[in-house]
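User: I'm putting together a teaching handout on how sequence relates to shape, and I'd like one worked example. Could you take ArtI protein from Mannheimia succiniciproducens, show the sequence you're using, and then write out its predicted structure as tokens right after it?

Assistant: Happy to. First the sequence, then the structure tokens directly below it.
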Amino acid sequence: MKIFKKTTALLAAALLATGLTACDNKDSGAASADNNAVSAIERIKKADKVRIGVFSDKPPFGYVDKDGKVQGFDVEIAKAVTKDLLGDENKAEFVLVEAANRAEYLLSNKVDITMANFTVTPERKEVVNFAKPYMKVALGVVSKQDAPITDVAQLADKTLLLNKGTTADAYFTKNFPKNKSLKFEQNTETFQALLDGRGDALSHDNTLLFAWAKENPGYVVAIKNLGDLDYIAPAVKKEDTDLLQWLDGEIEKLAKDGTLNKAYQKTLQPIYGDEIKEADVLVEYQ
């Protein structure tokens, strides 16, 4: 009996020691992982560049000019963000994205920040984190001037052109599932389809449609506001909380110090003219 008790005691002691060692190793490993974890801002500074997703085919917000350079309103803001983060706007590495893969490029670590006219929606907020917004937007519908679509009800027996993965796509798919539509990956494809007569109307962000209609005589944005007023903001991965917090402060700073205003005057005002007011587009911060 004494031998059994002694053996049991030794076994219990051994198990206890093993358990404590395992816990210590686990805690040590967790601490080591925490120590080795690099914040998003540290990661960007170490790389000495920030990868920013922008559009290549959505003028005047993001597009590639005749010289192969990325231009546009979003791009101007991205340059300012890069300068404040890394001290030099030329350290921005622009990655061209499409509407449908903006979140995917963040999740697959192809970009650090997405600034491709990304509208904040509840569904997208489940996947990525949005910083404070810099722009207001609603949906609109553009059509031929001699056959204007002035009411959504007119689309019941017509073909509507849409970009996949946009808020316009989501809106019409949800609210008018029986309506006929043609959907494309790229903005250029969608607008070309309208010019070719493959659709009767096209729905997209009204800020984009106002600009497009001014540069394409014969077309009019007869439905100027559709659905809710939305906001456009930079997006980051869920885990990049320090970068999110920094961007919140940065966007507010850019609004207050006039940088957003300068970007608007350079890229949007020449196209909008006096028809669109700056206050209708930019988000203001007190």
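A couple of points you could highlight for students: The CA atoms of residues 52 and 94 lie 5 Å apart. The longest helix spans residues 2-36.
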